[in-house]
Specification:
The complex is a heterodimer of chains A (336) and B (263). Chain A is built from 14 helices and no strands. Chain A is mainly α and 336 residues long. With 263 residues, chain B is of the alpha/beta class. The chains are: A mainly alpha (336), B alpha/beta (263).
């Protein structure tokens, strides 16, 4: 394992259970949809003997949707856990440093200026680029300070600026359809995703996860504060550069294919933390798996809840997130 | 064995000069106390010595090598640092916190080994927190928490220990325990530097004292050389009862004197 210096750092069944949950959720996501496919047809299609319709539904509609859901959820869950550890703040989530908003601004600009219509990769590309530009701004604003507070304040500035840009695009949008499209995108969804989206999200997510998962012990050391961490040999400046780059690329890639999906990054680390020794490093892997489970699960709900137009994923995660979070908070309040 | 030499060290925080031209040498096997009034620059001195605050001028060498040229992990294994204030941001168990002291010894991706476990166990025993092993640090009393943090620093197994106010929030019994522990570390050849406010403890246990006032090293030497009624008055602005005779020296501040003229 990457991070469990202590064998007893996590409940021994946690990771196996999460992996099983992830597989079950992925299977459920593959087998559920507006068109009912019998188990035998799914099985046949999976083994390559199925009929053309079943094959098309499974591999061109449900598989990309499931994969995008897994990637985005895993990325958001991990990013939340890393940020909470790094900023030593249980309220941190990928949006606090402006990663989500700035990636969203790039996508909104792509829709607003019609660039998104050129090619399916244009929107994600612009989104990731915009995330990286925001990262540069974040570094410029926070300067040499290593305090989490400076970084959070700089993040709020970047996030607010990007949010203002999004509002401006909505405000100036003369075409109501473009405005609708922007709104729909901001609500977050992984509906109608293709393998192209998977290929865009995959390298970003892998690179982002790699950067975020490298040396998780630096996060543990930060539990002792900046001086404590540095006196344990942690290079804080390098750690920050690595984590913020991983965040911009990973979350940028995720937002680029799914729109803004909130709450996953905030609640997943809180849900898994009680099953660990609560050190930031041991929360990372369970958060990654838990994020994937939660997002795909929410996406299954989106498909099952009968509404006139399909519910947006970001709406469902927010509605799911609040009660789960509140119950958890009431139970855990003592330890803060 | 490790020796730390500071030469003409100056540092500022923001625009305020905090340290001016400090030169001192800390030797192995010596328990050195840093004393001085609030805001004198004691914490900044120990932080500058470990490269935790940027220095304006001057140099710190550790065993003859410049601090800036040292690998941070090497430095972390050589000198353990106990910061002031017992900061802990997550509700971790005592054992987990103490084990953080082993981080500089762990190669990336490796597990904690039997040696590390032994060091953790031993450090907990030495700081008298073995019985708290499974407890959550944030739920402990201030004094227990202070000892856990000390155990964390001991677990590094370094040849040098720098402790910033390790006696804060300890009861008299545990204050004596901690001072005896630090003296024992020095007796075993470690370089021990500690920031103290209790002058009696400083006089009784420290081999050498550094007296800092307004960023300047005003006196350096044995407790007998450094602690005088005159210095209590000029540096701390107090009158005191000083009894340096016998095996248990005593320095008891008595009253504020108004001669320092700043208030």
């Amino acid at each position: 394992m990457l991070d469990d210096a202590f064998p007893a750092a996590r409940h021994p069944a946690l990771i196996p259970l999460l992996i099983a949950g992830l597989l079950a959720m992925a299977l459920a996501s593959m087998s559920l949809g507006p068109v009912a496919l019998s188990e035998s047809r799914i099985l046949a299609a999976l083994t390559g003997h199925g009929d053309a319709i079943a094959q098309a539904i499974l591999f061109e509609l449900r598989l990309p949707r499931t994969l995008v859901g897994l990637l985005v959820g895993a990325m958001l869950g991990l990013a939340g856990a890393v940020l909470q550890g790094y900023l030593r703040n249980p309220l941190a989530e990928p949006s606090v440093l402006g990663a989500s908003n700035s990636a969203a601004l790039g996508a909104v600009a792509a829709i607003y200026f019609g660039i998104a219509d050129w090619n399916v990769v244009m929107l994600p590309l612009l989104s990731i680029t915009s995330g990286l530009v925001a990262l540069g701004l974040l570094f410029a604003l926070s300067g040499r300070s290593e305090s989490p507070l400076t970084l959070i304040l700089a993040g709020i500035a970047v996030s607010t600026l990007a949010g203002a840009g999004i509002s401006l695009a909505l405000n100036l949008s003369s075409n109501p359809f473009a405005a609708m499209e922007i709104m729909a995108w901001l609500l977050g969804s992984i509906e109608n995703r293709t393998m192209e989206h998977v290929w865009i999200a995959l390298p970003c997510a892998l690179l982002g996860m790699g950067l975020l998962l490298y040396d998780p012990r630096a996060l543990d050391a930060l539990a002792l504060g900046e001086d404590g961490a540095r006196s344990l040999g942690v290079d804080l400046r390098r750690t920050r550069r690595r984590l913020l780059l991983g965040l911009a690329i990973g979350v940028g890639g995720a937002v680029a294919v799914s729109g803004s999906i909130g709450f996953i990054g905030l609640i997943v680390p809180h849900l898994v933390r009680p099953l660990t020794d609560r050190s930031p490093s041991t929360v990372l892997l369970p958060s990654l798996l838990g994020g994937a489970i939660l997002l795909v699960g929410a996406d299954i709900l989106v498909r099952l809840i009968p509404t006139a137009s399909e519910l947006k994923l970001g709406v469902v995660t927010a509605f799911l997130g609040v009660p789960v979070f509140l119950v958890h908070l009431l139970r855990e309040r003592r330890s803060w | 064995m490790v020796t730390i030499a500071m030469r003409n060290l100056s540092a500022d925080l923001g625009r305020r000069a905090v340290l001016t031209g400090i030169s001192a040498t800390l030797r192995p096997g010596t328990l050195t106390g840093v004393i001085g009034p609030n805001g004198a620059g004691k914490s900044t001195l120990v932080r500058a010595m470990l490269g935790l605050v940027p220095t304006l001028q001057g140099s710190v060498t550790i065993d003859g090598r410049d601090l800036k040229a040292l690998d941070p992990r090497d430095l972390a294994r050589t000198i353990a640092y106990l910061p002031q204030g017992q900061t802990l941001h997550w509700p971790l168990s005592v054992e987990r916190v103490v084990a953080l002291g082993r981080l500089p010894h762990l190669a990336p991706m490796s597990r904690i080994g039997p040696d590390d476990r032994e060091a953790v166990r031993e450090a907990m025993a030495r700081a008298d927190v073995g019985h708290l092993s499974g407890r959550i640090v944030t739920e402990l009393s201030g004094g227990e928490r202070a000892r856990v943090m000390l155990a964390r620093a001991l677990a590094v197994g370094a040849r040098g220990i720098v402790a910033d106010e390790p006696l804060a929030s300890l009861d008299p019994g545990h204050q004596i325990d901690v001072m005896e522990l630090l003296a024992r570390e020095a007796g075993n050849g470690a370089l021990v530097l500690t920031v103290l406010h209790d002058l009696t403890m400083a006089a009784r246990y420290c081999h050498r004292l550094l007296l800092i006032d307004r960023g300047v090293l005003v006196a350096e030497g044995t407790p007998r050389e450094v602690l005088s009624a005159e210095r209590l008055r000029t540096v701390y602005g107090v009158t005191g009862h000083i009894d340096m005779g016998g095996a248990t020296p005593m320095v008891v501040p008595l009253a504020r004197c108004r001669e320092r003229g700043e208030d």
